[in-house]
Amino acid sequence: MIRAAVLAGLGTYVPSRVITNDDLSRILDTSDEWIRSRTGIAQRHWAPPGTATGDLAVEAGGRALKSSGSGDVDLVVVATTTPDHPCPATAPGVAHRLGLNAVAAYDIAAVCSGFVYAMASAAGAIAAGIADRVLVIGAETYSTILNPEDRTTSVIFGDGAGAVVLRAGDPSEPGALLGHDLGSDGSLKDLIIVPAGGSRQPVAAVAASGDRPAETYFQMEGKPVFRHAVTRMVASSEAILHRAGWAPESVDWFVGHQANVRILHAVADQLGIDRDRTVVNLDRVGNTSAASIPLALDDAASRGLLTPGDRVLMSAFGGGLTWGSTALVWPEIVTG
Ligand code: UT7
């Protein structure tokens, strides 16, 4: 029998510092009205300077372990666009700080699709018998890569972390991930990019002046990204609905990557899912990239929206370009 990956725990963390749209309007040529109407975002959390992604990951990971009722896992996967260092990966340090001793640990870099990619990777490890319990964390400190002078990106992204524990189980159990659809289109890699800091453009090559070079900041071409996000999330969601044997109207909650409420509604409309069935928490946390889906799950669970037995469709889209979807029936869990 195939060993399924079953949701056994969920925990999240956002830094306490809240940045409102009005805060940003004081330093950028923007307004609360523009940000709310174009994105749905009212505020986001930015970690205090000196905070690294691993710090947020440890908080969320610890809560997910507690929620799962056991501190034991044999693999830690961290999805992030903002790792603590170019080398080594963030996951081994997070595993160490969580007291997980010698477990396997690695990062996944799939930008805003990172969490869905990481869950698929964890499910693969479980199916192959490589791991019995996996801690999957999506964590980001976008505040460290946002160009403070770029109003097209600074108003969108926030910091945060979300984590789940996946355990080996039966495909028919509530909480079992019902398949994975993943994809990418590298011909469009420049639409979402931090140009410098990797091997193609080392920081030293652009760091001639004392100021931080613009090439080390996150850059995004919003308009084409919006279009591709809708098209890819719709197609990927349809693939998963087909695999799960679910009609769109039978989905209780669509938990999409929290990039823009207009994207979420466009995807829901095209899938034939009622907009009221779309989980939205980006108004309070902004776009938290790899942390987005677990933060939305936790928000919906703690608001009492997600109840055991609900059919949940998850879909994400991000830099790469990358996209991915999965689905599950919501299990009995106490979130952390
Ligand atoms: O998470 C990974 C995936 N990311 C996404 O899915 C993001 C997808 N893209 C989007 O969500 C939207 O494209 C944005 C929210 C980024 C932008 O919204 P838009 O409706 O596509 O606006 P736009 O880029 O077409 O800009 C419209 C106008 C422009 O002015 P002109 O050329 O019409 O005079 C911009 O310069 O709004 C201007 N603008 C702003 N104005 C006030 C751009 N950013 C701002 C701003 N405040 N922050």
What's the end-to-end separation, in Å? 31 Å
Q: SSE string, helix = H, strand = E? A: EEHHEHEHEHEHEEEHEHEHHHEE
Mean pLDDT over the residues: 96
Largest sheet: 5 strands, mixed
* Secondary-structure content class: alpha/beta
Oligomer: single chain
Overall CATH architecture of the largest domain: 3-Layer(aba) Sandwich
Indicate the overall shape: globular
Count of discrete domains: 2
- The CATH homologous superfamily of the largest domain is termed Thiolase/Chalcone synthase
Q: Which kinds of small molecule does this entry bind, naming each only once?
A: oxa(dethia)-CoA
Determine and state the CATH class of the largest domain: Alpha Beta
Measured on Cα atoms, how large is the radius of gyration?
A: 19 Å
Which fold name is given in CATH as the topology of the largest domain? Peroxisomal Thiolase, Chain A, domain 1
Strand content: 15-25%
- The spatial strand order of the largest sheet comes to 1-7-6-4-5
Give the uncertain stretches in residue-range form. Answer: none
Our count of helices gives 11
